[in-house]
Fold this sequence. Notes:
The chain is mainly α. The chain has helices at 10-16, 19-26, 50-65, 69-73, 77-81, 85-89, 94-104, 111-116, 135-141, 143-151, 155-161, 167-174, 179-200, 208-225, 284-294; strands spanning 4-5, 8-9, 247-255, 260-268, 274-283.
Amino acid sequence: MDPIIGGWDEQLVRDTFWEEDGETILAIPVGIETPDWPAWHFDSKGMFSVKSAYKIEVQDRDSKAGRTTEASSGSGTADVQFPWRKIWQMRLPNKVQMFLWRLIHNSLPVRNNLKRRKVKTETLCPMCRRLDEDCGHVFFKCKKAQECWRELQMENARCCLVQCRSGKEMAEKIWKMQADQQLKIVVWMWRWWTARNKANAGERVQSAGEVSSSEHYHLEEFAKLKRPAKQRDRSQKWKPPAGEQYKLNVDAAFSALTRRGGWGCVVRNNTGDVLDTGAGNINRGQLYMAWKEQNTWE
C-alpha cells in the first residue's frame, strides 16, 4: 500500500508530476479528518448561486454566438476605464447615487427594458402615452419631461444630453458641467423617475411645476445633509483640578423621538490621569421611576 503523506498519495504524486512540482505538492497541508463536501467550481467560495449559474449560461451563449464575454458582461477595457467613482463622490444621498448608477447601466425597469427581458407589458411611455419608453425617451424626449426641463431653465442641458447614445456618454457630459448644475440635473432625473413610477402605478401624472418644486426642495434638503461638520473649538482645553482634588466630567444625550438617551462620565486627577469611567443607557420611564423614588412621601 502506497504511503500517505499529509493526505496525499506520495507515489501517485511522484509518478504524475516532475520532481520539483511533486515536492511542492506534497508540502501542501491537507486536512485528513476534514469531511468531503460538494463544492460549486464556478464560485470562489464553492457555494452554488443563481448568479454564478446565470453567468455560466451567458458565457456559453456568447461563446456559441461568437461574442466575447467582456462585451456582454460589461467588464471590458472601456468599462474599467469609465470613472465610476465619480458617482459616489457626488454630494448626494446613497439612494440618488444608486439611481444614477442604474441609469448609466441602463438597468432601470423602463418598459422597453422589461419587454427585452420577456416581460409582457405595453411599451408606451406612461407619462406622455405617445412613444415607446426607454431611458432616452423618459428623461429627455418625453413631451412631459421637456416641459420640466424648460420649467427649470435647463433646456440647453437637455439638448446636449438628448444626443447621447448611452448612459456612460450621458454621465461623462454631465460631469463636464459645473458642480451645481450636475446636482440639479441628477436630482431632477431622480424626482422625475419617482413621478414616472407613480404614473406607471396608475396615479395622476404630476405637472412640470410640481416636479420642479420637488426638485428644489430636495436640493435644499440634500445641501443640509452634506454640510461639513462644525469644527470643534480647539482653544477650549480641559483644565486640571487644583491641588489633590479630582474632576468629574459628564455628558449625556436624549432623543425625544425614541424617549431614550445615554450618559457617560470620566474622573481624572490633577495630572490628567484617568481614574475611573462610566457610561450607560436610560429611558424616560426609568427617569420617572428614579424621580418618584426620591420624591415619595413616607
